[in-house]
Design goal:
The chain has about 425 residues and is mainly alpha-helical. Helices cover about 70% and strands about 0% of the residues. It has 13 helices and two strands; from the N terminus they run αααααααααβααααβ. The chain has a two-stranded antiparallel ribbon. Helix 1 (about 10-15) packs across helix 6 (about 165-185), helix 7 packs across helix 8 and helix 7 crosses helix 11 (about 345-375). The longest helix has about 50 residues, at about 25-70.
């Protein structure tokens, strides 16, 4: 079977706007009206982006002035250095969002939409980092949800609803479905057709890598604790409120897959070294984030050979190295084949439903951890019906039994007082 050639978006856009020979004048008129409507919507969206960008830029200037004045007056002398550093990083992140939004608005107004999607992705990434900084500074607040929601909405907007690219994306979806059906029949679904990497980097593959990595990671942690750490003792090692999922391993699987994707033909020693460094850095970063955001200590390798601040050590870096070799050589090909057994007609619906449930589980987990932290810190968490719900259904006893490998120490956080 001859595979349908995937046409680049800019060629599809040009083809969509050209009038085919013999086409009716009414079709041309309809196309012209559609173009004018798209141009008007693009200008409106670009103008709104410019307004938001100027507002954010003014906010950054105000924050810098306020911070500098307060610092000069000694208002921050009792705050930890880490808290001040996170605050500065957050202000810088908002500045990146402001500049990116201004660039995005200018490009849309001028009709240069080719770089708009990339700019929107950069803005979404900066918003995500700002949300993490806010989480470590003040916990799960309204600002945190606004930042996360803005990142998700912006990504969804430019992925599905950008008026200037909607027709192109419709045609792309038609071609994608044709390719998906053919790849499913040929057994190459999920592979990188360019040959530069093993797998195709798309949301479908990455989501299922995260989900199955989180599932297998929880199983491995549970078995390792039962067989090695404390023989005969069963301990829940899950990291979410519901389900046998350890998101740390899920994110680790995604990061390893992205970084090692183009190393799948490399020698095992090189893959081992790259995986050891990446895995150790990831483990250190996660430990640092959990401690600074929630005062949570999920593992402590202090006293072990070549440990780095108790957050990672030589043995576990070697384990990450071995895992990377096994992952890219054996597990990833098997996993790609497994998830692509989902019938191609259902793959997007099943993935969307599963992703929605996973996001909901993650959001509820963040809120429950935040309420648990505040209860231990002596902050009232039953002042609203929302807080009372978590205090009733996810109290200290429940959280301690669900997250058995984790202990919370409010004094370790970087939250501002």
């Amino acid at each position: 079977m001859t595979r349908a050639k995937l046409v680049p978006e800019h060629e599809i856009g040009c083809a969509a706007t050209k009038q085919a020979p013999g086409s009716s004048p009414s079709g041309a008129a309809g196309s012209g009206a559609s173009e004018r409507r798209h141009r008007i919507l693009r200008i409106i969206f670009g103008a709104l982006s410019l307004i938001v960008g100027f507002v954010l830029a003014a906010l950054v200037v105000f924050l810098l002035y306020f911070t500098g004045t307060a610092f000069y007056d000694g208002a921050f002398q009792d705050q930890p250095v880490a808290s001040l550093t996170l605050f500065v990083c957050m202000v810088v992140g908002v500045g990146v969002v402001a500049v990116g939004t201004l660039i995005l608005g200018a490009r849309l107004v001028r009709g240069k939409v080719r770089g708009a999607h990339l700019t929107a992705e950069i803005i979404s990434l900066a918003l995500g980092f700002c949300a993490l900084f806010e989480l470590m500074l003040e916990g799960v607040t309204t600002i945190f949800w606004i930042l996360m929601g803005s990142a998700l909405v912006l990504t969804a907007l430019f992925t599905f609803a950008d008026p200037s690219l909607s027709e192109e994306r419709r045609l792309q979806r038609v071609l994608r479905d044709m390719e998906t059906r053919e790849e499913a029949e040929e057994g190459t679904l999920g592979r990188d057709v360019t040959g530069r990497g093993y797998m195709a980097v798309n949301f479908f593959n990455l989501f299922w890598i995260f989900t199955l990595g989180a599932l297998f990671g929880d199983a491995i942690e549970t078995i390792y604790h039962y067989m090695v750490e404390v023989p005969g003792e069963f301990q829940i090692r899950a990291g979410l409120l519901w389900g046998p999922f350890s998101p740390i391993y899920g994110f680790g699987a995604v990061i390893l897959s992205l970084i090692l994707n183009r190393f799948y033909k490399a020698p095992a020693l090189l893959i081992f070294l790259v995986s050891a460094v990446v895995g150790g850095a990831f483990e250190y970063a996660v430990s640092w984030f959990l401690e600074f955001a929630f005062g949570a200590v999920a593992w402590d390798y202090t006293g072990r050979f070549l440990n780095i601040g108790g957050r990672t050590d030589f043995m576990f870096m070697c384990m990450w190295g071995v895992l990377g070799v096994v992952w890219i050589k054996l597990l990833l090909p098997w996993l790609i084949g497994l998830v692509n057994r989902i019938p191609w007609q259902w793959r997007y619906t099943v993935t969307a439903v599963a992703a929605t449930l996973m996001i909901f589980d993650g959001a509820m987990t963040l809120i429950a951890l935040d309420c648990w932290y505040m209860r231990l810190d002596g902050v009232p968490t039953d002042q609203t019906a929302f807080q009372a719900f978590f205090a009733q259904h996810f109290d200290d006893q429940y959280m301690a039994s669900r997250f058995q490998s984790m202990s919370l120490h409010p004094e370790l956080t970087t939250r501002v007082s």
